[in-house]
Amino acid sequence: MSDFEKDKLTEQELKEAANTEPESEEISDEEPVINETDPGAEANPEPQLNEEAVSEPKEDEQTGSESDPKVNEDAKSEPDILDDLEFISHESVRDKSKMAEGSEIRDEMLSKKKTKRRSVDAEAAKKEKVQKIARKNLHVIVIVVVVIIVLLVLLGWGLRQRAAKLEAQNLEQPVSSQEYETDAHEQINELIADYYACYAEGNVENILQYAYPMSDSEKSYIQMYSAYVENYENIVCYTKTGEDESAYIVSASFEVKFDGVDTTAPGMDFFYVRINDDGSAYIDNTYSPFNLLYQEYTLDQTIVQLIQTYEASEDVIALQAGVQTSYEQALEQDEALRTLVEGTLADAVSAWQTEYETAQQQKTEDATQQVEEETAAEEQAEAEAAAEAEAQADAAETTETENKAWVYVTDTVNIRQEPNESSAVLASATAGSQIRQLAVTSDGWTKVKTGEIVGYIKTEYISADAAAVSSTSLTEGSTIRLTASVNIRSSMSESSERIGLAYAGESVTVVTSYSEGWTKVTWNGQTGYIRTDVLAGM
């Protein structure tokens, strides 16, 4: 086949491609929805190119026929080989090629749009079908929903009844035979979680919202321990009924995350939880492990026995053993955790323990001293009260008769404020002293006056006869050897000028004794006065 024939075939193929365009347009007209969504499908300028490309040879033919009619007639009469040939230009070939390519692209776009439309229509039809079924069976759907709600309510009621029945059974059973419940009480779960959150922060003020009472010692321990804690995770509460329906014994397992350590350490604590009248829960910290150990608050031994029975239960022992095994495995897996727990933290707890014991010892000593002082003060107050009561009783029973006279003291005696031996001593009277008697009492006391002092001397040491004075009386001219140092005054008064100080071992000579309780003496060539009672005792 020649190149010319190839060109002719190309021309024919292009014409066939151009002739297929109206069919494409008809397909487009059958899909108004697609045209609406993509108006550009109707406004495609490529058909105009096709018409121009096809019309170009026709214009040449028309031009040829108008310019040379004779040739046209000859052509009609005599067939020529050239009549079977068609000449095309390179431009028309290119234009028609573009037209064919444009037609293929447009057909592909139309196919995609049709597919998308069919998918949208199918979804809409499916949705409409579901809505229609739902409207038709609305009463059935409502009944099903109501039944489901009723079943859920009954299920919840049944669970609550089962829990109540189990709790009632627990109340009737001893702690050792009860089955512990796991996370069965939401308020207890929240209480323990809040407690551990405050514990990890070392916030002892906020922790008192959940656990009380709490001593200063326990607060200091929490602040010390929490310095190493980041948080508590995976808290699980195992509960049994306590002494009554408003109390629970709780074992809380957890995993503690320490600062700077990746592996958490499993652990378990014990709590005694009570329910208030308003339904809120709190931790009775009187039975915390800390106070059970140090007993800073008084314990109810009935509850202590209950706790001991609980901890001796087989299921609780197994629970604790499981936690202990997990704890040991964690230490084996992480050397940093072991170093912290067995080294750093253990040293911190030991230091706190030493400080606590020292403080407790000092507190005990202070308390003991305070008790002794209070006891001594009470005894003294009781003795003084008894003496006063006795004096008042004696005074009430004693009668005093005035009897003024000069009398002599037969022995050195005390002059008391009141007529009883427990009364305060005002001064002393030496044997042989002459004093003024004012009155006598019915119970054997004499009211006397010496100088400015007025008091009482037992009547048995008073005599109106000077001869009855004791042989130990100070006599004029006698020499007395001093057994103790004594002041020598310029007159008969302790406020008078002191002449000198006579030392033990020195001697003084008695000049005379006076009823005022002073004795005139000579000493080292000087004359002065010494209290008679002091001198008589030498």
Folded structure, characterized:
- By secondary structure, the chain is an alpha+beta fold.
- The protein is built from 15 helices and 19 strands.
- The protein has helices spanning 3-19, 21-30, 32-37, 46-67, 69-77, 90-136, 138-172, 186-201, 204-207, 216-226, 289-294, 301-311, 314-333, 335-397, 532-536; strands spanning 181-182, 211-212, 229-241, 247-258, 265-275, 281-284, 400-409, 413-416, 425-429, 434-441, 445-450, 453-458, 462-463, 479-481, 486-489, 498-502, 507-513, 518-523, 526-531.
- The strands form five sheets. It has a six-stranded mixed beta sheet. A five-stranded antiparallel beta sheet has the order 12-11-10-7-13, with no helix packed on it.
- Helix 1 (3-19) runs parallel beside helix 6 (90-136).
- The longest helix has 63 residues, at 335-397.
- Residues 1-10 and 20-79 have low confidence and may be disordered.
Report low-confidence residues grouped into runs of 5 or more.
Answer: 1-10, 20-79
Average pLDDT over all residues: 79
Radius of gyration, in Å, reads 64 Å
Structural class: alpha+beta
What fraction strand?
A: 15-25%
N-to-C span: 175 Å
Largest sheet: 6 strands, mixed
How many alpha or pi helices? 15
Molecular shape: elongated
Strand count: 19
Strand adjacency order, main sheet: 1-3-4-5-6-2
Helix content: 40-55%
Task: List key phrases describing it.
alpha+beta, 5-stranded antiparallel beta sheet, disordered N terminus
